[in-house]
């Protein structure tokens, strides 16, 4: 097994453990909403401390149910992950392309006329002057 495969397997196991351990250990037992998000927990704490609190703003869009809200959040996360994956893929491709171009060119410069002029002898300047 290669080093990358070992690292990927370890990362998958860590992610699975993060998903399963809170459920297996019963961390949400005894609560009305055991795994509520930070927004819901903050709202509950504010309401408990100051029941007459009025929010400054209201949401632009209120989803009809918690399931729709969760689906929209998952869609947002998937789009963000796609954008990041695209960025890192393009970045890696450019780096690999630059490495291939540097390895393939050696000391010769491509003048486009098929002469394969050497950059150190000045014949590249002569080839460029012919154009």
Question: How would you describe what is shown here?
Answer:
The chain has 131 residues and is mainly α. The chain has four helices and no strands. The protein has helices at residues 3-24, 38-49, 66-105, 123-130. It is elongated.
- Describe the main β-sheet briefly: none
| Percent in strands | under 5%
- What kind of assembly state do the chains in view correspond to? single chain
> Averaged pLDDT, please?
81
The helix/strand order is: HHHH
Helix percentage:
55-70%
Gross morphology: elongated
- Poorly predicted runs: 122-131
Give the count of helical stretches.
4
Distance, first to last CA: 54 Å
What does the radius of gyration come to? 29 Å
Structural class: mainly alpha
The tally of strands reads 0
Write the layout of secondary structure elements.
Layout: H1 3-24, H2 38-49, H3 66-105, H4 123-130
Question: What are its keywords?
Answer:
disordered C terminus, 4 helices, 131 residues, mainly alpha, single chain
Summarize the structure.
The chain has 131 residues and is mainly α. The protein has four helices and no strands. It is elongated and about 75 Å long.
């Amino acid at each position: 097994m290669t080093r990358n495969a070992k690292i990927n397997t370890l990362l998958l196991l860590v992610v699975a453990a993060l998903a399963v351990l809170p459920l297996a250990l019963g961390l949400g037992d005894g609560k009305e909403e055991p795994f509520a998000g930070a927004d819901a927990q903050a709202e509950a704490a504010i309401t408990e401390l100051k029941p007459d609190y009025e929010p400054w703003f209201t949401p632009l869009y209120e989803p009809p149910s918690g399931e729709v809200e969760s689906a929209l959040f998952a869609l947002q996360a998937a789009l963000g992950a796609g954008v990041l994956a695209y960025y890192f893929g393009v970045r890696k491709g450019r780096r690999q392309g630059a490495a291939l171009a540097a390895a393939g060119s050696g000391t010769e410069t491509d003048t486009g006329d098929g002469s394969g002029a050497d950059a150190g002898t000045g014949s590249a300047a002569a080839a460029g002057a012919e154009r």
